[in-house]
Write a structure and sequence with these properties.
The structure holds two protein chains of two kinds.
Chain A (H helix, E strand, L loop, with lengths): L3 H15 L4 E16 L2 E19 L2 E7 L4 H17 L32 H18 L3 E20 L4 E19 L2 E11 L4 H18 L8 E2 L2 E3 L3 H6 L8 H5 L20 E4 L21 E5 L2 E2 L6 H6 L8 E2 L7 E2 L3 E4 L6 H6 L3 E9 L10 E12 L2 E14 H4 L3 E4 L10 E2 L3 E3 L3 E3 L1
Parallel strand pairs in A: 8-15, 14-19
Antiparallel strand pairs in A: 1-2, 1-4, 2-3, 4-5, 5-6, 7-21, 8-20, 9-10, 9-14, 10-11, 12-13, 15-16, 16-17, 17-21, 18-20
Helix pairs in contact in A: 1-2, 3-4
Chain B lengths: L3 H13 L4 E17 L2 E19 L2 E7 L4 H14 L12 E3 L16 H16 L5 E19 L3 E18 L6 E5 L2 E3 L3 H5 L2 H17 L1 E2 L3 E7 L6 H8 L4 H4 L21 E4 L20 E6 L2 E2 L6 H7 L7 E2 L8 E2 L3 E4 L6 H6 L3 E14 L4 E13 L2 E7 L2 E5 H4 L3 E4 L4 E9 L2 E9 L2 E9 L2
Helix pairs in contact in B: 1-2, 3-5
The chains are: A alpha+beta, B alpha+beta.
Chain lengths: 447, 459
């Protein structure tokens, strides 16, 4: 088996032998160590290493793709040959690979890798998991079982090379833990779930995941539906990025070109409240999607998607840029098994001064949403939102009851114009969606 | 795949590490993906997935590792590392490997390798045209073919050596329609455990009409007023609700953790006598079928609920042992990157005596959910939510205007007893199910049925 460098060099050699001038290769190498805990012992230990090579050839204006998880010479040659054959049938894309970027900074400056995490052993993770379980069990005597509890460290390495001289290598890693506790009180059952995911090992902070999960479930145990109607909604700092994150595909130029974005033709128009600026920041230190080059080798720069409420920029990769007569903005995403698609980097929605509790005090009555039930009722093309939620009813600034068995319905594009206030903090875990809690109007509740 | 000598060494190495059971899972898969979007071939991709998973069991504790490097020394090192994680134990037994023949009941009529990619491209273009001809309001069409041939080898310290091949073929179609009130999507995605004959036998016109009509109807639709009401669930993919809300909580993976409303309920009434539900991995060429499961166990037909009484759970090796039930041949995994757990195969509600007209006629105001979108469930509490892809209001016993934006939410064990009428028009539909052991092909299904009351989210 070849190593990463040998593998990409072999792809470039095959390209040279075939007389191809436009080829790129992407290798991903992932390593993980995970433990699962149940009833005071380690129930499962999993350790893994996986590798994959994606080859993209550009020939006569056409693109061909293939990938393999076998990194020996014959498998690489088969993948290369498959990519060539696939390119014959592709409709022309006229993609031209970007030239290599000179003077690139060291990707380590992005703060996406902490080598200390690689030293964590399964015992370290198991000790953390056991401590989380103990604290969860002690937190409330209504905990009936803790079916989901684990701790893990993960690292990934990406190497992108192309025939224009690009050679980009980036490491990311993280350590995490999760706890899902089931609480029962009579016939009432609730699961409280919490995640901790960081790039610094802090077992004391991670251990609080257990208590927090139990508290989350316990607070909702006596939940009841509330009557149907219109009510202001506060999406907490965990829910807001999860809900809004389903809709940012609308900012893709590729989606607009294919008639699958409601933002088509709206550049320069007011699409949100004047206070809103939404920035795509590829260089945010420690951001989950921080990169110096995108998946095609284009250097992205910080880019406002919305500025003072106005729609400022679509996101382009090379192909959508060519179609739209616009330079790539460096928003190509890709994994080794797939083709290029449009991907945001780190999206940043500015915080304001209000705490979550203060947001809940602004309207006379509101629903604080702390949990989304799946995502199936959310349509990223139309922007429609129809989703089950759980949370708390607030009246005159006081929490009056936990709420479940209701749905909220609205639309993402209307939401952008109906945000009344933003919170003062992002959720603490590693993320690429920096969106604070939001107070929004215009939603309908069915209960 | 991997030589018998290497497999034997890994199994012996596992034994020496103190494992009382060691298993080797090798996978070599070739898949291809063709997508036509915006009238153009948007992507043609070929993938070779290969790797080895090693599982050591020490009592009920699981130690799993995988690698895409088949080098013997690497795999022995992986096994040794797994062994270091476990508590000290007495070495388990090791029986000589015996190759077991697998009877392949999923006949392939046309080997996909004999068909050119250009023929596939032509089929996609045809489907695109057939969909677009339903009117200018069809704004966009995406059509795709996904094919995967998966060869697996499963060997274990009990002497099992079994190899199996599984060919999956699936067509996806998405139509987007716009009539001035936002784009709406209609989708179809049939699939089969079989060869290229699946594509040749597909009724492309019917598929195109179904997706286009769904998108056009929803583009005309207004939003439904939400509330609790009776719902008639359409046949076929409507079965996704039973799959999510009842099927997952009936897997021993949930039962063994005491994380299911169905724990200790075998033999009890969980639905009305009209309700019988089955999970069957043995249906020839069905999308969710298999010859042997991913632990090498022959698959079977498992009656989950019979005449309203809970009969069985779905189990894997660990789940069966912990829950105290027989193995049902339901251990599944997406790939070598996952250790297997109990999962559904082809899950459906059996036909009943009623008709759809009877159901609609019995409702003064309610919802007919003709086609369901996706959904999810919390197995511990049974709480589920599902999107309705194509819905119609029911008014005064008759089908009325199309409605969009509906979501169904509830708790599976509370909804089951509210199924009061079941028709005799059973249909099965292909889907992909995501859970602890990754995404696996599963079939959901049901006849048209009536739920007396359920919360419908809307505007």
């Amino acid at each position: 088996m070849l190593d990463l460098q040998q593998t990409v060099d072999h792809v470039l050699l095959l390209a040279e032998r075939s007389g191809l001038k436009e080829v790129d290769a992407l290798i991903e190498r992932d390593e993980a160590l995970e433990v699962e805990i149940r009833d005071g012992k380690v129930e499962k230990v999993e350790q893994s290493t996986s590798l994959g090579l994606g080859v993209r050839v550009l020939r006569n204006g056409k693109t061909g793709l293939a990938s393999t998880e076998r990194l020996d010479v014959s498998a690489i040659e088969r993948a290369f040959q498959s990519a060539l054959e696939n390119s014959d049938l592709q409709d022309p894309t006229e993609v031209v690979l970007p030239e290599a970027t000179n003077g690139l900074a060291d990707p380590e400056s992005l703060g996406t890798y902490n080598s200390d995490l690689e030293k964590l052993t399964s015992k370290d993770l198991a000790d953390l998991g056991l401590a989380i379980e103990a604290s969860a069990k002690n937190a409330d005597d209504r905990v009936s079982t803790i079916p989901y509890l684990g701790a893990s460290r993960n690292s990934s390495e990406v190497l992108l090379v192309n025939s224009k001289g690009t050679r980009y290598h980036q490491h990311n890693n993280s350590v995490g833990a999760y706890c899902g506790a089931l609480l029962q009180d009579g016939e009432a059952r609730k699961t409280g779930m919490r995640f901790w995911n960081q790039r610094n090992w802090n077992p004391d902070a991670a251990q609080r995941t257990g208590e927090e999960a139990v508290r989350k479930g316990a607070d909702l145990l006596k939940a009841q539906p509330i009557p149907s109607g219109k009510l202001p909604i506060v999406l907490d700092e965990y829910v807001a990025p999860r809900l809004l994150g389903m809709y940012f595909g609308a900012f893709s130029a590729e989606s607009a070109q294919k008639g699958m974005s409601r933002l088509k033709g709206k550049l320069g128009e007011a699409i949100a409240i004047p206070e809103l600026t939404l920035l795509d920041d590829p260089h945010r230190i420690g951001g989950n999607r921080s990169r110096l080059l995108d998946a095609e080798g284009v250097p992205p720069q910080p880019l406002p998607l919305i500025e003072n409420g106005e729609f400022r920029n679509f996101l382009y990769h090379v192909e959508s840029g060519r179609k739209g007569k616009h330079a790539s903005t460096g928003h190509a995403g890709r994994n080794y098994t797939g083709g290029v698609s449009t991907r945001t980097h780190n999206l940043v929605w500015a915080t304001s001064d209000s705490t979550l509790e203060q947001l809940c005090r602004i309207p006379e009555e509101c629903l604080l949403v702390t949990q989304l039930e799946g995502a199936a009722g959310c349509n990223p093309i139309s922007g429609d939102i129809s989703i089950g939620v759980q949370g708390f009813l607030y009246r005159n600034g006081a929490r009056v009851q936990p709420v479940d068995s209701i749905t909220i319905a609205g639309n993402f594009f209307e939401l952008l114009k109906n945000v009344r206030a933003a919170g003062n903090a992002y959720q603490p875990n590693l993320t690429h969606l920096f969106i604070p809690a939001l107070l929004v109007e215009g939603f309908t509740i069915s209960g | 795949m991997l030589s018998e000598s290497t497999v034997s060494k890994i199994l012996d190495h596992g034994r020496q590490q103190g494992a009382d059971f060691t298993e080797v899972f090798v996978e070599d898969s070739v898949s291809s993906n063709l997508t036509l979007l915006d009238r153009k071939i948007d992507e043609i991709n070929s993938t070779n997935s290969f790797g080895v998973g090693v599982r050591l069991l020490c009592g009920d504790d699981v130690y799993y590792g995988y690698s895409s490097d088949p080098d013997e020394a690497n795999l022995l090192r992986l096994t040794a590392n797994l062994g270091q994680s476990q508590r000290e134990g007495q070495p388990g037994g090791l029986l000589p490997l015996q190759q077991q023949a697998v009877e392949d009941i999923h006949h392939i009529a046309i080997n996909p390798e004999t068909i050119s990619k250009s023929e596939r491209v032509e089929l996609l273009r045809q489907l695109d045209e057939l969909t677009r001809k339903h009117g200018e309001a069809i704004l966009q069409v995406s059509a795709g073919m996904v094919e995967k041939h998966r060869v697996v080898l499963i060997a274990n310290s009990e002497g099992l050596w079994v190899e199996d091949g599984r060919s999956y073929s699936r067509m996806r179609l998405s139509a987007v329609a716009e009539k001035g009130d936002g784009p709406q999507t209609g989708m179809e995605s049939p699939g089969m455990l079989g060869g290229y004959e699946f594509f040749q036998n597909l009724d492309l016109e019917e598929m195109a009409e179904s997706a286009a009509t769904s998108a056009l109807k929803m583009a005309d639709a207004g939003y439904i007023d939400g509330g609790t009401m009776p719902v008639v669930l359409g046949n076929g993919f409507g079965g996704v609700i039973f799959h999510e809300a009842c099927g997952h909580p009936l897997e021993t993976e949930a039962i063994r953790k005491n994380a299911s409303p169905f724990c200790n309920k075998v033999g009890e009434a969980v639905g009305q006598p009209i309700l019988t539900a089955i999970d069957d991995g043995t249906i020839a060429n069905k999308w969710g079928s298999c010859n042997v499961d991913d632990e090498g166990q022959p698959t079977q037909r498992t009656v989950l609920i019979e005449n309203g009484i809970l009969k069985n759970y779905l189990s894997d090796r660990i789940g069966a042992r912990q829950v105290g039930v027989a193995r049902s041949g339901s251990a599944r995994r997406e790939s070598y990157k996952f250790s297997p757990v109990s999962r559904m195969r082809n899950t459906f509600i059996a036909p009943g005596p009623n008709s759809m007209d009877e159901m609609i006629g019995s409702i003064e105001f309610g919802l007919y959910a003709k086609k369901m979108g996706g959904g999810s469930v919390n197995p511990g509490t049974g709480e589920f939510n599902f999107a309705v892809q194509e819905g119609y209001a029911i008014r005064n016993g008759k089908l009325a205007e199309p409605v969009r934006g509906a979501t169904l939410i509830g708790k599976g064990h509370e909804v089951l007893p509210k199924i009061s009428m079941i028709a005799n028009d059973l249909e099965l539909a292909a889907g992909m199910c995501g859970a602890a052991s990754g995404w696996v092909p599963t079939t959901v299904g049901q006849p048209t049925l009536k739920i007396d009351s359920i919360l419908v989210g809307g505007r």
